[in-house]
């Protein structure tokens, strides 16, 4: 057996996630769910959304603001009832002007500048001064005590705008709207993108009780039957990327050591699109340094961190040409003097497959744990709404999730349906606004 063959077999073991191991991880995940709900130490935040499921009959025109990264979207959504909707208008703009005119995510930018920009985009959606309720998808770590307050704990995703951390996002937006004469736009709910995707899907399919993001980031939420914050079922944001009771290999440890927040987000770093490219690079770099690939030479472009994206991995996995010509073209575009062999190119595809397959199987573990928590006997049908580029575009990803659910749930997996919830974060915010605008309940946990 050659040294390279031995190395590949070792990698297969290091990135394996066999069914018995996944059952154990799912049990630990469910235990952390229970502990988090009870206020005991847990790696899962179990954040309440203070939102319950829609009826599917909500109607009217509602505004949605989707702020989840360096681009924002503002939408006018007409809910038609019977789970149907129509996008009446939309605005989409970057928070950093490509021409250099503005940069609203730098630490030199202020809260007033950022939220003034958001308000100005909403103003373009409605020419009249009629009252419009607004739902705001805000995908950053927050502390909430009701559906319509959210204190930003800290920025992520390279955003550094000053004067926002530690402040109420809803109040900042209300102030900006008032200053621009837009008091008829009334924010009534703020929620994160995972909950928003779930609500959007539940509007058209009442059986949808798990939502997930499998893209640049990873997170899962679900409908908790008996939340500690109220008497009605409530969507709970797991912040599942922080789950830490999962064994990592040497590449996971190396990636974590050089990450922005070492020691945190273990599942996120093993699962999300932001990190799996770097995991592939670290594995291949190790093989290069051991003189097992590329003649022992490390190309200059490959020595830099984070040069592999999820899109690159998708290209590797989709290359079905006899000599992997698409991978060859990708390599040649970055190092024309590479001199790579078919065996080298094949290894890129093999390593990408190992890392991506593990990512999908770990995502399925979080769904299994949530399903068993909500429905221990698995006696009811369930729909899982999944948004994100990995689920939508990564070759084999969706099928691996489906197969893994079959491995973990057996014949009961027939009761589980996974569906793509594309762009759910905008529509979900509008549905949430409808829920909060019309919800009349004596339960104070659900008041805005």
TrEMBL record:
Q: State the pathway, as annotated in the record.
A: Carbohydrate metabolism; Carbohydrate degradation
**Keyword check for Ribosomal protein:** no
Q: Does the keyword Kinase apply?
A: yes
InterPro entries from the xrefs? Answer: ATPase_NBD, Hexokinase, Hexokinase_C, Hexokinase_N
Q: Which GO terms describe its biological process?
A: glucose metabolic process; glycolytic process; intracellular glucose homeostasis
Q: Where does the Hexokinase C-terminal domain lie?
A: 210-435
Gene3D superfamilies xref list: 3.30.420.40, 3.40.367.20
> What cellular-component terms does GO give this entry?
cytosol
What catalytic reaction does the record list? D-fructose + ATP = D-fructose 6-phosphate + ADP + H(+)
| Classification via SUPFAM superfamilies | Actin-like ATPase domain (SSF53067)
Q: Which domain of life is it from?
A: Bacteria
Q: Which residues form the Hexokinase N-terminal domain?
A: 8-203
Gene Ontology terms for molecular function: ATP binding; D-glucose binding; fructokinase activity; glucokinase activity
Mind telling me which PANTHER family this protein's record contains? HEXOKINASE, HEXOKINASE TYPE 1-RELATED
| Stated name of the protein | Hexokinase
Native source species = Acetonema longum DSM 6540
Instruction: Tell me the lineage of the source organism.
Output: Bacteria, Bacillati, Bacillota, Negativicutes, Acetonemataceae
């Amino acid at each position: 057996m050659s040294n390279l063959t031995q190395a590949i077999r070792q990698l297969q073991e290091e990135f394996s996630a066999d069914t018995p191991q996944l059952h154990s991880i799912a049990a630990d995940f469910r235990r952390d769910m229970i502990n988090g709900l009870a206020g005991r130490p847990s790696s899962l935040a179990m954040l309440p959304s203070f939102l319950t499921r829609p009826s599917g009959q909500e109607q009217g025109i509602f505004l949605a603001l989707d702020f989840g990264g360096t681009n924002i979207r503002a939408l006018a959504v007409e809910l038609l009832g019977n789970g149907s909707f129509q996008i009446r208008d939309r605005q989409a703009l970057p928070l950093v002007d490509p021409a250099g005119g503005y940069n609203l995510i730098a630490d030199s930018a202020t809260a007033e500048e950022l939220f003034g920009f958001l308000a100005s985009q909403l103003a373009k959606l409605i020419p009249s001064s009629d009252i419009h309720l607004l739902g705001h998808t805000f995908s950053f770590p927050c502390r909430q005590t009701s559906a319509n307050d959210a204190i930003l704990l800290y920025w992520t995703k390279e955003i550094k705008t000053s004067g926002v951390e530690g402040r109420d996002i809803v109040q900042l937006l209300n102030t900006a709207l008032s200053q621009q004469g837009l008091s008829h736009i009334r924010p009534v709910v703020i929620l994160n993108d995972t909950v928003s995707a779930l609500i959007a899907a539940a509007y058209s399919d009442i059986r949808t009780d798990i939502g997930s993001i499998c893209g640049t980031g990873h997170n899962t939420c679900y409908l908790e039957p008996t939340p500690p914050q109220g008497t009605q079922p409530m969507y709970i944001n797991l912040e599942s990327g922080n789950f830490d009771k999962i064994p990592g290999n040497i590449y996971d440890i190396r990636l974590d050591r050089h990450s922005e927040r070492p020691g945190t987000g273990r599942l996120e770093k093993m699962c999300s699109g932001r990190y799996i490219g770097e995991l592939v690079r670290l594995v291949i770099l190790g093989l290069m340094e051991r003189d097992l690939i590329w003649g022992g030479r490390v190309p200059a472009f490959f020595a830099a961190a984070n040069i592999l994206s999820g899109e690159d991995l998708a290209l590797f996995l989709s290359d079905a040409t006899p000599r992997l010509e698409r991978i060859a073209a990708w390599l040649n575009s970055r190092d024309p003097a590479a001199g790579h062999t078919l065996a080298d190119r094949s290894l890129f595809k093999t390593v990408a497959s190992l890392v991506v397959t593990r990512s999908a199987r770990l995502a399925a573990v979080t769904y299994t744990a949530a399903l068993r928590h909500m429905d221990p006997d698995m006696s009811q049908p369930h729909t899982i709404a999944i948004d994100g580029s990995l689920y939508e575009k990564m070759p084999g990803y969706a099928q691996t999730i489906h197969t893994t659910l079959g491995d973990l749930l057996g014949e009961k997996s027939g009761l589980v349906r996974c569906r793509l919830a594309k762009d759910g974060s905008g529509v979900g915010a509008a549905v949430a606004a409808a829920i909060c605008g019309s919800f009349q309940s004596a339960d104070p946990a659900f008041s805005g």
